[in-house]
């Protein structure tokens, strides 16, 4: 399965980051802390689910506001927040195009 991962670099504000991450994760505080300290993914989101990607973007924005240094990974390749935003917009455009196509197909069958 294709996924996007979030890595948070450790610093003195780990507790603040964990508080924000708990809103988006079912992982325990201990597991989130370990993932941050080990610089392993704290969260993973489906690459093909627009709502999941929007959640990822929201987490990144929130963590950045708290001063966190984060890395967004597409599989094993690091991407920027701008690239994530572009991906979300592309997914939305595809969804709109599919809806228009579905509407046209329905109109033609009536």
Would you give an account of this structure?
By secondary structure, the chain is α+β, with helices and mostly antiparallel strands. The chain has four helices and four strands. The protein has helices at 14-21, 29-38, 50-65, 81-109, and strands spanning 3-8, 43-46, 70-74, 77-79. The chain has a four-stranded antiparallel beta sheet, sandwiched between helices. The chain starts with a strand and ends with a helix.
Q: Structural class given helices, strands, pairing?
A: alpha+beta
Give the helix level as a range of percent: 55-70%
Low-confidence stretches: none
Beta strands, count: 4
Number of domains: 1
Biggest β-sheet: count, sense, barrel? Answer: 4 strands, antiparallel
Number of helices: 4
Mean pLDDT: 91
Radius of gyration: 17 Å
* Overall morphology: elongated
List the helices and strands and how they pair.
Layout: E1 3-8, H1 14-21, H2 29-38, E2 43-46, H3 50-65, E3 70-74, E4 77-79, H4 81-109
Antiparallel strand pairs: 1-2, 1-3, 3-4
Helix pairs in contact: 1-2, 3-4
